[in-house]
Amino acid sequence: MKKNINAKNSPVLLALTTAAMILPGISKKADANPMDQATTFDAKHSIYEEGALPGLSGSSARERYTINATQFKFKTPVLEDSEIGVSGVFESMSGASPWYVRRTADGKLEQVMSGATIDEERTELGASYRSFNKTTNSENTLSAGYSEENDYRSLSFGFSGVFYVNQQLTTLEYGVNTSKDYIDASDPNLFVPIYPARPTNEMKNRLGMMLGASHIATKNTLVSATLSYALLDGYLSDPYKMVYVNNKLVPDNRPYWNEQFALTLMLREFFPSVNGALHVDYRFYSSTWNVDSHTLELAWYQNLGAGWQIIPSIRTYTQTQAEFYAPVYDTARTDGYYSNDYRLSDFDANSAQLKVVKAFERFNLSFTYETYDSSGDNPGLVSYDFYSIGTSIKF
Amino acid sequence: MNRASKLLLISLTLLSAAACTPVKSWERGNLARPEMSFTPDPLARQIQDHIYHSKEGSSSVVAGSGGGCGCN
Fold first, then answer.
1. How do residues B8-67 score in pLDDT, each as one tens digit?
2. A4 phi-psi bin (left φ>0, alpha ψ -120 to 50, beta other)
3. Nearest neighbour of B61 by CB, restricted to A230, A265, A368
4. How confident is the model at residue A32 (pLDDT cuts 50, 70, 90)?
5. Closest-approach residue (CA) in chain B for A221
6. Which of A134, A140, A360, A361 has the fewest CB atoms within 10 Å around its CB?
7. Residue A233 has pLDDT above 60, yes or no
8. Is A328 helix (H, G, I), strand (E, B) or coil?
């Protein structure tokens, strides 16, 4: 399962761009509230390239994923106090994916990849309606989304609200969302009877909620804290992965229930003397599968004059392994849960990014490069390079 | 005290610590700059979060509407 799009979708983007150019004339009367109400169109094209796994040999040697992703987002006021938005993500992916981990004759762990190059696409469409209430000085947003790929469909809804209080020094936010996912693995009987059939007609439900607040601390400082919770139930395993248990390959099998908690803290500090801003984001995450993680992101926004801006940033991430995870299992577990997925392993990851933005009167252009590397005991852990070019147009 | 209660307590403590001298409306010019936004580039945040959450164990807890697997 994956995601993506491309050039073949350019007619869609062309149509939306045309619509975006026409709509401002219709919406000129609708410019009162919310305060940032405006007609905007944003688009971005990104390329994600995973590095080849080290140490692969023989038939298991395969290139990892390359993903092309095109995104757009358009929003415009429709009434004096409300706006609508539409968005899309189109992705195309090719490459091979981790299949299972095995122990070699000399006792080392080796990642075995899927036996063939996979070519897939994903399309995601979203719509939102946001309204501002002058009386209560608050906003409400309704959103819906649909994502489809050949083996995975997801339907989601969200509702969120914002209250501006304390002379607009403080903003209180809340939100709930839910999604229902349908999983139908490709080629379910490909390896039958050697291995069990892949699952089809599986479902996954998700219910999430968040509570947050942001505050103007000084004339150059903004702070924010957000608590969030999500409950997932249903098929939470990977339909394609296999696991060695007692020298026999069995399907990846995870609990049908997972509760997730997160605390996100953010700081924005502007430094007038150097015309730059510091961003500090920290996130603590914990789940009932015992995966705990810490994420720290630091970014510096340096204005250079003539509309140029340069943004270097770094990100560091660390997580603990799921309680039922192991690269290979020498003995069977009493609960029957098995996964050697590198995403559930104990690992650290670091990335560095550089973004350059050039602003013009009504639009800007941006280019981003990121390099990401992870390390741990699982041989399937990824490294990747990420490139992105984007524009934001304000009508 | 369970995990959620601890997180809530930490959040409220940090927020109350930040509530110092009120900033007047006419002093908020720098705060309105685009680079002071919590999410200056929503599309970049969307695609990068999607990548992180499909390559790491910490899936997005509240992502609003939208989804897809992005496994592999």
1. 666 666 655 555 568 888 888 899 999 999 999 999 999 999 999 889 998 765 544 445
2. left
3. A230
4. very low
5. B31
6. A361
7. yes
8. coil
Q: Which chain B residues touch A369 with a CB distance below 8 Å? A: none
Q: Work out the minimum CA distance from A36 to partner chain B, whole angstroms.
A: 10
Residue window 25-54, chain B: list those with CB within 8 Å of chain A: 25, 27-28, 30-31, 33, 35-38, 40-44, 46-48, 50-52
A160 to chain B: which residues are within 8 Å by CB? Answer: 64
Q: Do B11 and A223 touch (CB under 8 A)?
A: no
- pLDDT by residue (tens digit) across A137-195? 999 999 999 999 988 999 999 999 999 999 889 999 999 999 999 998 888 888 777 78
pLDDT at A210 over 80: yes
Please say if the pLDDT value at position A58 is more than 60.
no
ipTM above 0.95, yes or no: no
Out of A272, A277, A345, whose CB is closest to B35? A277
Residue A56 pLDDT greater than 60, yes or no: no
Look up the pTM and report it: 0.85
> Which two three-digit tokens encode residue A264?
């996100």
**Which positions ≥6 away from A348 have C-beta within 8 Å?**
A316, A317, A318, A374, A375, A376
- State the smallest CA–CA distance between residue B59 and chain A in angstroms: 8
**Model confidence at A105: pLDDT above 70:** yes
- Which amino acid is it at A244? Y
Residue A274's contacts (CB-CB under 8 Å, 6 or more residues apart) are A302
What are the counts of helices (DSSP H) followed by strands (DSSP E) for chain A? 1, 20
Tell me if A291 sits within 8 A of A322, measured CB to CB.
yes
> Strand pairing partners for A213?
A172, A225
The number of C-beta contacts closer than 8 angstroms across A and B is 224
